[in-house]
Amino acid sequence: MNEENGYYTPPQPQNYYGAPDRMILERKRREKKELRLQSAFASCAVLTLVLVQNILVSLMTLAGLYEKYMSDSLFQAGVDILIILLSVLLPFSVFGKLIEKKSGLKNSLPFEKPKAKGLMPLAVVSGLGFCMAANIVTNMLISFVSAFGVELSSPELAMPEGAFGFVVSFCRIVVVAAFVEEIAFRGYIMQNLRKFGDGFAIAMAALVFALMHCNLIQAPFALIVGFALGYLSIKTGTLWTAVIIHALNNCVSLAISYLSDSVEEKLLNYTVSLMIYALILAGILCFVAFVKRANSLPGFRTRTALSLPSKVLAYLTTPPMLLAIALMLYFTAQYVKTVG
Fold first, then answer.
1. Which residues have CB under 8 Å from 29's CB, separation 6+?
2. Which of 21, 190, 274, 330 is deepest in the core (most CB within 10 A)?
3. Kind plus residue range of the DSSP H or E element containing 218
4. SS3 content of the chain, % helix, strand, coil (to 5)
5. pLDDT in tens, 36-69
6. H/E/C letters for each residue in 24-70?
7. Distance between CA atoms of 109 and 200, rounded to whole angstroms?
8. At what angle do helices 119-146 and 265-294 cross, to 10 degrees?
């Protein structure tokens, strides 16, 4: 066993001429095969998500409930909870267990205690800062493309009225969506890819997470936040980090949606802007402290035989993944419109 600065580096056998020998080539072949298998399972989960959602919509149409779903916000919120559980949690749990079995990871859902005391508060504030910054980047993107006559849109969630309606919306957006999506992406997908490098695992999980949103308003936001959630989860050593940040961000969005009907628009915009910049500033300060403290903890990194381009190519070019990407891009195009 070779150890260097607390990291484990597998032995690198070579022949007498300094070129990788058959052991290295065989190791590359095995790693590439496993990556492609993980890619196939992850993309099949995404494709199953789309299939289940379409089946549920078809069943509602056959039962004469689709019109009610579109017009009754409370009914829609309740059905959406069921849709998230059946179309996201179920397929990702099934295919996630298959990924887990093939990768040899004993637990791809590390709901553990943080590695050190004080890390979680720093991580949460840092994560919220990243979320607010991602909102600014997304707004800049919308403004930029609109200058060229391109209008971006995204699916709108109807907010049911009343206390009970707020509770149902809270369960849908803050509790169920945050928990299920983090299990799927920062859990099953990212954790099982970590054996190929944390940076690679974070990036691939964030990319698939962004594509799943199927529109150019939510996708850039999801990509940026996906990188932040992945990094903070790995450094704290617990999936709770991503779940809490995701839930708090969704909670802020939900509160703004409900307050927009009762608070004067100018006052609300001023308050929201102040909150965004305050959280970004706090996030920067906490992130600096977080990185300093997290980097002082023991680390573990496995060096794979594959180069980064080889890993990306192996993961993103399997037939199921290419089909999933093409399907997501097709749905994304439905929310892009040329004006004028």
1. none
2. 190
3. helix 218-236
4. 75, 5, 25
5. 999 999 999 999 999 999 999 999 999 999 999 9
6. HHHHHHHHHHHHHHHHHHHHHHHHHHHHHHHHHHHHHHHCCCHHHHH
7. 18
8. 130
